[in-house]
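Following up on my earlier thread - several people asked me to post the actual chain instead of describing it. Fair enough. Here it is, all 252 residues.
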Amino acid sequence: MRPAPSTPTSGTQSSGGTTTVDDSGDMIPRPTATDFRRLVSGTQENIIHVMDITPAAFERFKKVLRDRAHVLLDCERFLYEQNPDAWAAYLDWARGELAPTMSRYVDAWPVELYVEHYLSKRTYYKRHDFRKKMRFKYPPKPVRIKTPPSEHDASLPAPTGPPPPYEDHDFEYPGAIARRDDKVVENFLQTVNPDLGHLVSAFEELGINNEADLIVVRLWPPAVRKDFFERELVGKMSALQIQALNVRLGEL
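Reply from S.P.:
Thanks for posting it. Predicted structure:
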């Protein structure tokens, strides 16, 4: 657990007769990469705790960041999708605007943490809601084809009645997984290089239990898939495994 900031108690005497206090030890360091990802995908209460501020102070902090984000950033996109120049300008503004508050934190890391948290939640839910509305507005329709006649049927006299109805055929998406047993997800994970078969239970916890679920995930844009697995499987998959999984899904 990170200790609470302490008040400096010692200093060094300079040649000019003034006392210079070394307060670098009082600054709150940036969380590790793993903890940072957990905080991005977690709740605001976790961010308040790691920043070591009151809920009221955090509300003021996030309001300042949100209001400016809607001016300088595209709040319909994840942080990694932002224009680099716009993000750099936003960081410069935030460090100046919130200088008294950010003086407690190494490299003003709470700015990046909260903005990524805000954009991730907002963008994910907006895109998810859009896909849900589109599925409701344009439900999938069954594909029908007329079965071609066989050579034997072609030699028969033409029927005098109405033509036979079209026969319904079920089609799979191109490249869809052919096997339809209880281990279809596990079998798919074992085809990833490196082998991810040991993660089948983690995928089941995410609701990915069968071929249809895999197809739904495959239809997502690669960036959305990557963000989803980084957020939901943080600590369970390495960056290499997530990239390999994303590539394999794109090959289906």
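Residues 1-24, 166-181 have pLDDT under 50 and may be disordered. That should answer part of your original question.
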